[in-house]
Amino acid sequence: MTVAEKPVVLLWLNEPAPYREALQDAGLADRVDLHTLRMDATPSPELLERCEAMLAWRAGAGILPRMPRLRWIQAQTGGVEGWLALPDLPGKIMLTCARGTHRVQMSENILGALFHLTKPYAAITADQRERRWTRRISEVLAGTTLGILGLGAIGHEVARKAAVLEMRVIGARRSGGRVAGVGQVYPPEQADEVLKASDFVLLLLPSTAETRGYMNARRLRLMKPTAYLLNFGRGDLVVDQDLVEAAKAGTIAGAVLDVYTTEPLPSDHPFWVTPGITVLPHIGGLHPERDRIVAGLWIENLRRFLGGRSLLQVVDRARGY
Questions:
Q1: HSE-CB for 107 with a 13 A CA cutoff
Q2: What is the set of domains in the chain, with CATH numbers?
Protein backbone atom coordinates (compact mmCIF):
# COMPACT_ATOMS: atom_id res chain seq x y z
CA MET A 1 0.00 0.00 0.00
CA THR A 2 1.45 3.36 -1.04
CA VAL A 3 1.36 6.41 1.21
CA ALA A 4 -1.32 7.92 -1.03
CA GLU A 5 -3.53 4.86 -0.47
CA LYS A 6 -3.25 4.82 3.31
CA PRO A 7 -5.96 6.58 5.34
CA VAL A 8 -4.73 9.86 6.79
CA VAL A 9 -4.94 9.93 10.57
CA LEU A 10 -4.32 13.09 12.60
CA LEU A 11 -3.17 13.24 16.22
CA TRP A 12 -4.12 16.80 17.16
CA LEU A 13 -2.62 17.03 20.64
CA ASN A 14 0.49 18.25 22.40
CA GLU A 15 1.92 14.91 23.58
CA PRO A 16 1.66 12.40 20.72
CA ALA A 17 4.48 10.06 21.85
CA PRO A 18 2.30 7.55 23.79
CA TYR A 19 -0.04 7.28 20.82
CA ARG A 20 2.78 6.83 18.32
CA GLU A 21 4.29 4.12 20.51
CA ALA A 22 0.94 2.36 20.87
CA LEU A 23 0.48 2.49 17.10
CA GLN A 24 3.90 0.94 16.56
CA ASP A 25 3.40 -1.72 19.24
CA ALA A 26 0.05 -2.70 17.71
CA GLY A 27 1.65 -3.22 14.30
CA LEU A 28 -0.58 -0.61 12.68
CA ALA A 29 2.02 2.07 11.90
CA ASP A 30 2.45 0.95 8.30
CA ARG A 31 -1.30 0.93 7.67
CA VAL A 32 -1.94 4.65 8.16
CA ASP A 33 -0.47 7.95 7.04
CA LEU A 34 -0.01 9.50 10.47
CA HIS A 35 0.24 13.24 11.07
CA THR A 36 0.71 15.06 14.38
CA LEU A 37 -0.11 18.64 15.23
CA ARG A 38 0.02 20.69 18.41
CA MET A 39 -3.26 21.97 19.78
CA ASP A 40 -2.34 25.60 19.16
CA ALA A 41 -1.69 24.94 15.45
CA THR A 42 -4.18 24.72 12.59
CA PRO A 43 -4.09 21.86 10.05
CA SER A 44 -2.92 22.80 6.58
CA PRO A 45 -5.55 22.95 3.80
CA GLU A 46 -4.10 19.74 2.34
CA LEU A 47 -4.37 17.91 5.69
CA LEU A 48 -7.90 19.17 6.20
CA GLU A 49 -8.79 17.89 2.75
CA ARG A 50 -7.29 14.42 3.19
CA CYS A 51 -7.82 13.56 6.88
CA GLU A 52 -10.14 10.57 7.48
CA ALA A 53 -9.71 9.98 11.23
CA MET A 54 -8.64 12.22 14.08
CA LEU A 55 -7.83 11.95 17.78
CA ALA A 56 -8.12 15.33 19.46
CA TRP A 57 -8.99 17.21 22.62
CA ARG A 58 -11.13 19.67 20.71
CA ALA A 59 -11.55 21.51 17.41
CA GLY A 60 -12.66 25.07 16.90
CA ALA A 61 -15.74 26.14 15.01
CA GLY A 62 -15.20 26.24 11.25
CA ILE A 63 -12.65 23.41 11.13
CA LEU A 64 -14.73 20.26 10.72
CA PRO A 65 -16.77 21.46 7.70
CA ARG A 66 -13.42 21.89 5.93
CA MET A 67 -12.64 18.18 6.39
CA PRO A 68 -14.78 16.47 3.72
CA ARG A 69 -13.22 13.01 4.16
CA LEU A 70 -13.29 12.93 7.96
CA ARG A 71 -15.30 9.91 9.12
CA TRP A 72 -14.28 9.41 12.74
CA ILE A 73 -13.23 11.55 15.72
CA GLN A 74 -11.85 9.93 18.86
CA ALA A 75 -12.24 12.32 21.79
CA GLN A 76 -9.61 12.17 24.53
CA THR A 77 -12.20 12.62 27.27
CA GLY A 78 -15.28 10.84 28.53
CA GLY A 79 -17.37 14.01 28.31
CA VAL A 80 -18.07 15.30 24.81
CA GLU A 81 -20.30 18.31 25.46
CA GLY A 82 -17.64 20.55 23.87
CA TRP A 83 -17.78 18.56 20.63
CA LEU A 84 -21.57 18.39 20.62
CA ALA A 85 -21.79 22.15 21.24
CA LEU A 86 -20.03 22.84 17.94
CA PRO A 87 -22.64 24.40 15.63
CA ASP A 88 -21.03 22.81 12.59
CA LEU A 89 -20.33 19.23 13.74
CA PRO A 90 -21.26 17.20 10.65
CA GLY A 91 -23.80 14.47 11.23
CA LYS A 92 -21.87 11.99 9.10
CA ILE A 93 -18.86 11.93 11.45
CA MET A 94 -18.69 9.10 13.99
CA LEU A 95 -17.76 10.49 17.41
CA THR A 96 -16.32 8.18 20.05
CA CYS A 97 -15.38 9.16 23.60
CA ALA A 98 -12.90 7.89 26.18
CA ARG A 99 -15.61 6.54 28.47
CA GLY A 100 -14.21 3.97 30.89
CA THR A 101 -10.59 5.12 30.76
CA HIS A 102 -10.98 7.02 34.06
CA ARG A 103 -12.36 4.05 35.98
CA VAL A 104 -9.44 3.50 38.38
CA GLN A 105 -8.22 7.02 39.10
CA MET A 106 -11.71 8.53 39.38
CA SER A 107 -12.95 5.91 41.80
CA GLU A 108 -9.84 6.29 43.97
CA ASN A 109 -10.16 10.08 44.06
CA ILE A 110 -13.83 9.77 44.99
CA LEU A 111 -12.93 7.43 47.83
CA GLY A 112 -10.28 9.97 48.83
CA ALA A 113 -13.00 12.62 49.06
CA LEU A 114 -15.07 10.34 51.29
CA PHE A 115 -12.10 9.78 53.58
CA HIS A 116 -11.37 13.52 53.57
CA LEU A 117 -14.87 14.18 54.87
CA THR A 118 -14.76 11.55 57.62
CA LYS A 119 -11.13 11.35 58.74
CA PRO A 120 -9.35 14.21 60.55
CA TYR A 121 -6.05 14.11 58.66
CA ALA A 122 -6.34 17.67 57.32
CA ALA A 123 -6.88 18.99 60.86
CA ILE A 124 -4.07 16.82 62.19
CA THR A 125 -1.71 18.20 59.54
CA ALA A 126 -2.60 21.71 60.72
CA ASP A 127 -1.99 20.59 64.32
CA GLN A 128 1.44 19.28 63.38
CA ARG A 129 2.46 22.65 61.95
CA GLU A 130 1.70 24.13 65.38
CA ARG A 131 3.33 21.17 67.22
CA ARG A 132 -0.02 20.65 68.87
CA TRP A 133 -1.05 17.18 70.14
CA THR A 134 -4.81 16.90 69.65
CA ARG A 135 -6.47 13.52 69.57
CA ARG A 136 -9.33 13.49 67.08
CA ILE A 137 -12.00 10.90 66.38
CA SER A 138 -12.67 9.67 62.86
CA GLU A 139 -16.21 9.18 61.67
CA VAL A 140 -16.81 5.80 60.07
CA LEU A 141 -17.98 5.13 56.52
CA ALA A 142 -19.19 1.63 57.32
CA GLY A 143 -22.96 1.65 57.68
CA THR A 144 -23.47 4.97 55.88
CA THR A 145 -25.35 5.32 52.61
CA LEU A 146 -23.71 6.44 49.38
CA GLY A 147 -26.11 7.55 46.67
CA ILE A 148 -24.73 7.59 43.12
CA LEU A 149 -26.50 9.52 40.38
CA GLY A 150 -25.00 8.19 37.16
CA LEU A 151 -24.16 4.50 37.38
CA GLY A 152 -21.82 4.21 34.41
CA ALA A 153 -18.38 2.59 34.38
CA ILE A 154 -17.04 4.89 37.11
CA GLY A 155 -20.18 4.56 39.20
CA HIS A 156 -19.92 0.78 38.98
CA GLU A 157 -16.33 0.87 40.22
CA VAL A 158 -17.11 3.26 43.07
CA ALA A 159 -20.03 1.07 44.13
CA ARG A 160 -17.86 -2.05 44.14
CA LYS A 161 -15.18 -0.42 46.27
CA ALA A 162 -17.64 1.30 48.60
CA ALA A 163 -19.37 -2.02 49.25
CA VAL A 164 -16.04 -3.44 50.41
CA LEU A 165 -15.93 -0.58 52.92
CA GLU A 166 -19.32 -1.83 54.19
CA MET A 167 -21.18 1.18 52.87
CA ARG A 168 -24.74 0.82 51.67
CA VAL A 169 -24.90 1.93 48.04
CA ILE A 170 -28.01 3.04 46.18
CA GLY A 171 -28.29 4.90 42.91
CA ALA A 172 -30.17 5.95 39.82
CA ARG A 173 -29.57 5.39 36.14
CA ARG A 174 -31.51 5.63 32.92
CA SER A 175 -31.20 2.00 31.86
CA GLY A 176 -32.28 0.53 35.21
CA GLY A 177 -31.37 -3.07 36.03
CA ARG A 178 -29.16 -4.53 38.72
CA VAL A 179 -25.64 -3.24 39.41
CA ALA A 180 -23.09 -5.20 41.42
CA GLY A 181 -22.56 -3.61 44.82
CA VAL A 182 -25.67 -1.42 44.56
CA GLY A 183 -28.49 -2.37 46.88
CA GLN A 184 -31.21 -0.53 44.97
CA VAL A 185 -31.26 1.10 41.54
CA TYR A 186 -33.93 3.71 40.87
CA PRO A 187 -35.07 5.09 37.50
CA PRO A 188 -34.26 8.79 36.91
CA GLU A 189 -37.79 9.88 37.79
CA GLN A 190 -37.31 8.44 41.28
CA ALA A 191 -33.85 9.90 41.89
CA ASP A 192 -35.32 12.07 44.68
CA GLU A 193 -35.43 8.90 46.78
CA VAL A 194 -31.65 8.63 46.46
CA LEU A 195 -31.23 12.21 47.64
CA LYS A 196 -33.45 11.68 50.67
CA ALA A 197 -31.77 8.48 51.86
CA SER A 198 -28.07 9.23 51.27
CA ASP A 199 -25.37 10.43 53.64
CA PHE A 200 -23.18 11.18 50.61
CA VAL A 201 -24.62 12.06 47.19
CA LEU A 202 -22.20 11.48 44.31
CA LEU A 203 -22.87 13.18 40.97
CA LEU A 204 -21.47 11.30 37.96
CA LEU A 205 -24.04 12.44 35.42
CA PRO A 206 -23.11 13.65 31.94
CA SER A 207 -23.87 17.21 30.88
CA THR A 208 -27.09 17.16 28.87
CA ALA A 209 -30.13 19.38 28.47
CA GLU A 210 -31.85 17.27 31.15
CA THR A 211 -29.03 17.38 33.73
CA ARG A 212 -27.72 20.95 33.55
CA GLY A 213 -28.65 22.69 36.78
CA TYR A 214 -29.82 19.38 38.21
CA MET A 215 -28.73 20.06 41.79
CA ASN A 216 -30.83 23.12 42.46
CA ALA A 217 -32.37 24.50 45.64
CA ARG A 218 -35.31 22.06 45.52
CA ARG A 219 -33.15 18.96 45.26
CA LEU A 220 -30.64 20.22 47.82
CA ARG A 221 -33.50 20.60 50.31
CA LEU A 222 -34.30 16.90 49.84
CA MET A 223 -30.90 15.91 51.23
CA LYS A 224 -30.26 15.28 54.90
CA PRO A 225 -28.79 18.27 56.79
CA THR A 226 -25.90 15.96 57.73
CA ALA A 227 -25.29 14.85 54.12
CA TYR A 228 -22.54 15.89 51.72
CA LEU A 229 -22.66 16.45 47.98
CA LEU A 230 -19.74 15.22 45.85
CA ASN A 231 -19.58 16.39 42.23
CA PHE A 232 -17.12 14.51 40.03
CA GLY A 233 -19.37 14.60 36.97
CA ARG A 234 -19.76 17.94 35.21
CA GLY A 235 -19.63 21.44 36.65
CA ASP A 236 -22.93 22.56 35.18
CA LEU A 237 -24.86 19.87 37.06
CA VAL A 238 -24.89 22.22 40.06
CA VAL A 239 -26.56 25.61 40.43
CA ASP A 240 -23.65 27.34 42.14
CA GLN A 241 -25.55 29.95 44.14
CA ASP A 242 -28.09 27.40 45.35
CA LEU A 243 -25.26 25.21 46.67
CA VAL A 244 -23.55 28.14 48.39
CA GLU A 245 -26.79 29.11 50.10
CA ALA A 246 -27.51 25.50 51.11
CA ALA A 247 -24.07 25.12 52.69
CA LYS A 248 -24.31 28.45 54.53
CA ALA A 249 -27.81 27.73 55.81
CA GLY A 250 -27.00 24.20 56.98
CA THR A 251 -29.45 22.69 54.51
CA ILE A 252 -26.65 20.20 53.82
CA ALA A 253 -23.37 19.64 55.66
CA GLY A 254 -21.21 20.65 52.71
CA ALA A 255 -19.71 19.51 49.41
CA VAL A 256 -16.57 18.31 47.69
CA LEU A 257 -16.36 19.68 44.16
CA ASP A 258 -13.94 18.64 41.44
CA VAL A 259 -15.63 20.19 38.40
CA TYR A 260 -17.01 23.65 37.70
CA THR A 261 -18.95 25.53 35.07
CA THR A 262 -15.92 27.79 34.57
CA GLU A 263 -12.41 26.35 34.89
CA PRO A 264 -10.07 27.37 36.36
CA LEU A 265 -12.48 28.44 39.09
CA PRO A 266 -12.39 32.27 39.24
CA SER A 267 -10.61 33.63 42.31
CA ASP A 268 -13.69 35.61 43.34
CA HIS A 269 -16.05 32.63 43.21
CA PRO A 270 -17.85 32.03 46.52
CA PHE A 271 -16.97 28.32 46.50
CA TRP A 272 -13.46 29.26 47.64
CA VAL A 273 -14.65 30.77 50.91
CA THR A 274 -17.92 29.01 51.71
CA PRO A 275 -17.60 26.94 54.92
CA GLY A 276 -18.17 23.26 54.24
CA ILE A 277 -17.23 23.38 50.57
CA THR A 278 -13.95 21.79 49.47
CA VAL A 279 -12.57 22.93 46.11
CA LEU A 280 -10.51 20.40 44.16
CA PRO A 281 -8.69 21.58 41.00
CA HIS A 282 -10.28 19.00 38.65
CA ILE A 283 -8.00 16.13 39.64
CA GLY A 284 -10.52 13.30 39.44
CA GLY A 285 -9.51 11.88 36.08
CA LEU A 286 -5.79 12.60 36.20
CA HIS A 287 -3.50 9.58 36.03
CA PRO A 288 0.31 9.45 35.59
CA GLU A 289 -0.25 7.19 32.55
CA ARG A 290 -3.51 8.65 31.32
CA ASP A 291 -2.37 8.99 27.71
CA ARG A 292 -1.26 5.37 27.63
CA ILE A 293 -4.68 4.27 28.83
CA VAL A 294 -6.54 6.40 26.29
CA ALA A 295 -4.12 5.21 23.60
CA GLY A 296 -5.21 1.64 24.30
CA LEU A 297 -8.83 2.53 23.49
CA TRP A 298 -7.79 4.55 20.45
CA ILE A 299 -5.74 1.66 19.06
CA GLU A 300 -8.62 -0.79 19.46
CA ASN A 301 -10.95 1.64 17.71
CA LEU A 302 -8.38 2.32 14.98
CA ARG A 303 -8.07 -1.41 14.36
CA ARG A 304 -11.84 -1.62 14.06
CA PHE A 305 -11.96 1.47 11.84
CA LEU A 306 -9.41 0.00 9.44
CA GLY A 307 -11.32 -3.30 9.40
CA GLY A 308 -14.70 -1.73 8.83
CA ARG A 309 -16.07 -2.91 12.17
CA SER A 310 -18.20 -1.17 14.79
CA LEU A 311 -16.31 1.21 17.09
CA LEU A 312 -16.30 1.24 20.88
CA GLN A 313 -17.77 4.01 23.05
CA VAL A 314 -19.77 5.62 20.25
CA VAL A 315 -21.49 8.81 21.39
CA ASP A 316 -25.27 8.93 21.22
CA ARG A 317 -25.78 12.50 20.06
CA ALA A 318 -29.44 12.54 21.06
CA ARG A 319 -28.57 11.63 24.65
CA GLY A 320 -25.43 13.76 24.74
CA TYR A 321 -22.97 11.06 25.84
A1: 18
A2: 3-101+288-307 (3.40.50.720), 103-279 (3.40.50.720)
